[in-house]
Structure formats: structure tokens, C-alpha cells
Specification:
By secondary structure, the chain is α/β, with parallel strands linked by helices. It has a single domain (3-243), classed as Rossmann fold. The chain has nine helices and seven strands, in the order βαβαβαβαβααβαααβ. The chain has helices spanning 12-23, 36-49, 63-77, 101-126, 144-147, 154-174, 193-196, 202-207, 218-229; strands spanning 3-6, 27-32, 52-57, 82-85, 135-140, 179-186, 240-243. Strands 3-2-1-4-5-6-7 form a seven-stranded parallel β-sheet, with helices on both faces. Strand 1, helix 1 (12-23) and strand 2 form a beta-alpha-beta unit. It is globular. Bound molecules: NADPH dihydro-nicotinamide-adenine-dinucleotide phosphate. NADPH dihydro-nicotinamide-adenine-dinucleotide phosphate binds next to helix 1, strand 2 and helix 4.
Length: 247
């Protein structure tokens, strides 16, 4: 049976990925850091959709907690076969002049180091060279890596640019071991992340300026993620799907 681990699966895009995997009958480990109730609600939705689910707390920036996440996942639901490195943060919108080393370090710690640690544990579990089943990893990047997010989130954009490079490097490194690595780049998607960026209505407001004329939904991102994870994408690695309404 397919067993998917999703970091930051409690809310937003991660939760939508969990639910869609549940609808395909997969087992899903829903990781979260703070919001146990939201993670449990996602797990309930996964089961209602036809899958199996467990929640596991763990901060992706803490090396031991990431190792523990994968150990708990495998102990509860069997060998891990698919992973989505989704957990990410944005700091309140700021111009460059107001950015600090501390803020940059935090954004990089969660978005880049957290993804690297997740990818490392994923590879340890999946790699055929280490006795694993092979499998697929999807990294949740952002259109910010291509657009730069001037005047608001250049630090976040830079962290997502690092994820694009990580995707390319890991795809080549892990392909011989039977592990595919791809990324999705969402555009403006309606989730709570915009509130933490200081602009709760940002997706709705700016969505109208995209060629498709609206913000995207978490379900639309989840569809792209599930395709990249699936065997239908068996010859696709080191690739990017922009889910951005043409932005
Ligand atoms: P949300 O803020 O809605 O959800 C973020 C999730 O990440 C939560 O489940 C949160 O868990 C988890 N999380 C945050 N920090 C950590 C951590 N240190 N360890 C473990 N989990 C953590 O965000 P979105 O769903 O919008 O974003 C998901 C991903 O999509 C992010 O990588 C984001 O950058 C990316 N993205 C989003 C876009 C958008 O418009 N929404 C556009 C482009 C990319 P908890 O609250 O329980 O701590």
C-alpha cells in the first residue's frame, strides 16, 4: 500500500494533499508542528475519504524530530513510499530596508533546512540502494522563486529559489536509487499563510490580476502534487509544475 508522509499536513495545501491521497486509498501520515486539532481534523477527513491516517508532531527544523517523524510513520502505517515536503512559512511583508538577519535565518531554517532534512530522511527510507522500495518526493516551492516578490517577501522568494536548485540536484542524485524528485510552484492560493504574511486578503485581491482571473484553490495544487507522486509520472524527475493561473 502507498504510504505518504506530508510535512505541514495540518492546514492549507498540505491538508488538501492528505485528503486527495486518502481519496485514492493511500495511508497518510499528517505531520504538524503546533496545531494538533487541525492535524486530527485532516486525519479524520483522510479516513472519511477512504484512506488510513495518523498524525505525528514534529518541527521540520529539528533534526531529531524529523528522524522521529519518519520512524513513527513507518511504525504506525508501514514502509513510507511517498513524501511531500510542504511545511513552509512567510514573514510579514517588508521592504528590503526593514529585513534583518534574524528574520532571514528563520525563513531559511523552515523553508530550506526543513526541506533538506525532510528530503534526507525520505531518501533514507525510499532509496533502493539502501533496501527501500523506491518512490517519489515532491517539494512545495513557489512562483515567488521566479517572480522575486519585490517589496514584500524577497527573503521568502530567495528561500524558494533554493528549493528549486535542491529539486534539480536531488533529482539527479537520487534517480539511480529509484527515487523521483519534482516540485510544484503554487501561485496565489487561498490559505492562512497570507494572514501570517500580514495580508489575509492577498490571494483574493491579487488573484484577479492573474491571466485566469482568480486565486487558486488548495485542491488544484493537490491534483498536481498527486500526479507527480503517481506512477503516471514514472519518467518525470527534476521537473516543475507551476500551479499559478498563468501568472
Ligand atoms: P499554511 O500556513 O496554511 O500551512 C502551513 C503548514 O506548515 C501548517 O500545517 C504548519 O503546521 C506547517 N508548518 C509550519 N512550520 C512548520 C515546521 N517548522 N515544522 C512542521 N510544520 C510546519 O500554508 P500553505 O498551505 O499556504 O503553504 C504550504 C506550502 O505552500 C508552503 O511551503 C508555502 O510556502 C507554499 N506556498 C503557498 C502559497 C499560497 O499562496 N498559499 C503559494 C506558493 C507556495 P502548524 O500550524 O501545525 O505548525
Amino acid at each position: 500500500m502507498a504510504h505518504l508522509v506530508v510535512t505541514g499536513g495540518s492546514r492549507g495545501i498540505g491538508a488538501a494533499v492528505c485528503r486527495l491521497a486518502g481519496a485514492r486509498g493511500w495511508a497518510v501520515t499528517v505531520n504538524y508542528r503546533d496545531d494538533a486539532a487541525a492535524a486530527e481534523a485532516t486525519a479524520v477527513a483522510v479516513r472519511a475519504a477512504g484512506g488510513e491516517a495518523r498524525t505525528v508532531r514534529g518541527d521540520v527544523t529539528r533534526e531529531a524530530e524529523v528522524v522521529g517523524l519518519f520512524e513513527s510513520a513507518a511504525a504506525a502505517l508501514g514502509p513510507v513510499t511517498h513524501v511531500v515536503a510542504n511545511a513552509g512559512i512567510v514573514a510579514p511583508a517588508s521592504k528590503l530596508a526593514d529585513m534583518t538577519a534574524e528574520r532571514m535565518a528563520r525563513v531559511v531554517e523552515v523553508n530550506v533546512t526543513g526541506t533538506l532534512l525532510t528530503a534526507r530522511e525520505a531518501a533514507r527510507r525510499l532509496s533502493r540502494a539502501r533496501g527501500g522500495p523506491g518512490g517519489a518526493l515532491v517539494i512545495v516551492s513557489s512562483m515567488a522563486s521566479r517572480l522575486g516578490s519585490p517589496n514584500e517577501y524577497v527573503d521568502y522568494a530567495a528561500s524558494k529559489g533554493a528549493l528549486d536548485a535542491l529539486t534539480l540536484g536531488l533529482a539527479r542524485e537520487l534517480a539511480p536509487e529509484g527515487v523521483r524528485v519534482n516540485a510544484v510552484r503554487p501561485g496565489l492560493i487561498e490559505t492562512e499563510i497570507h494572514a501570517s504574511g500580514g495580508a489575509p486578503d492577498r490571494a483574493a485581491r491579487l488573484g484577479a490580476t492573474t491571466p485566469i482571473g482568480r486565486a487558486g484553490t488548495v485542491g488544484e495544487v493537490a491534483e498536481a502534487v498527486l500526479w507527480l507522486l503517481s506512477d503516471a509520472a514514472s519518467y518525470t524527475t527534476g521537473a516543475f509544475i507551476d500551479v499559478s493561473g498563468g501568472r
